[in-house]
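Researcher: I need the complex structure. Ligand is adenosine-5'-triphosphate. Inputs:
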Amino acid sequence: MLTQAPRGTKDVLPAESYRWQYLETKMRRSAALAGYREVRTPVFEHTELFARGVGDTTDIVQKEMYTFKDKGDRSITLKPEGTAGAARCFLEHNLYADALPSKMYYLDAPIFRYEAPQSGRLREHHQFGCECFGAKEATTDAELILLAFHLLKDLGISNLSVNINSIGCPKCRPLYHQALKEFLADRFDGLCPTCRERFERNPLRVLDCKEKQCRELTKDAPSMLNMLCGDCAEHFEQLQECLRSADIPFAVDARIVRGLDYYTKTVFELITRTKDGDLTVCGGGRYDHLVEQLGGPDMPAVGFGMGLERVLMLLDAEGIEIPSPGWYDAFVTYMGDNRIQAFRLTEALRKEGIRCDMDHCGRSLKAQFKYANKTGAPVTATIGDEEAAAGTVRLKRMSTGEEQTVPAGRAAETIRTMLA
Ligand code: ATP
Ligand code: MG
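Model: Output:
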């Protein structure tokens, strides 16, 4: 127990965190290019926010939230998704009074869902997400899809498909709900237990059930796309026009409905094919009524969330190497009593921007070299008695064994040339 992290969580070890940092840098850059600036919201919010925002008929709210009473007897929930918190923040700080649209992204936001852990499905995962408040045009939906698409492409992920759909609005969706329910009623007994529950409270969700029998039964279900109102149909047409103009491959998939109640009009997913089946790396859509539902003004909005663990999984699966920055640029080794000289050299090199270290474990010189080698340091800087007396340092290129002795004051500069 004590030495085991809770099920469905994952440590990121010091030796692998550079992979996350690499993604973060790319994500920040993609977001900035399109005018999205970072927002940071708390890890927990009032439970009510998600019940109202995400929707209390969703799987997330009904089964998956980490909810607890704090010591003040308030019901608190660890974020099960990123959008509701961003919308709350947008409202609380009257960002709608500024020039719109208000564009923001979050990075590394921990997301908590009590799900059955399996490959690509954790109980704590992390998302990069972008949200745009106050823009109703389909150009926004398109820009977000393109942002996610180009980011993943740029990371080297291939066989990426972009699937889009429209799930209408409160004007046209009730009619569709009715038609879908009539269709499902005739097939009710064949549905999986979860879908039988969904039938009443959230029939749309039956369409994206992953169970085979449900997929089969709903193959010929009526399509929302045939029942969109004029406004939704036009919006969807414009989105497609934008995507065509950007020359990216995409498909209309009437089965995408997404798991959160707040979506209206556009929903989309970026999916890759892996040997274990399809994996959704990014999902998003428009949520034109969320802000209003939370007590704010009428405010169109659209956004997406991308799972960082899944992106890393795909990079692994496709054998894409993330360039490692290495650990040290140099390692200081010393002989005998020259510990303080070694310490001073180490600190001096650090001041010069050289990533370096020295032995802190009382190793012999031989063992120090062995350790330096293990860290992958490309250069060692040694202070023996002779060097200490002369105020010099012996530099060695580890890959070739080639050595040179330089005045201590020139060590940093020389190391830099050796690294170049
Ligand atoms: P899925 O259909 O795979 O359950 P979702 O529709 O629940 O995904 P979203 O709520 O849209 O996912 O979250 C956005 C992204 O976050 C997903 O596309 C995925 O990359 C990632 N994600 C969602 N749930 C998990 C999880 N339990 N573990 C790891 N990543 C996840
Ligand atoms: Mg899910």
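Model: Summary of the prediction. The longest strand covers residues 102-112.
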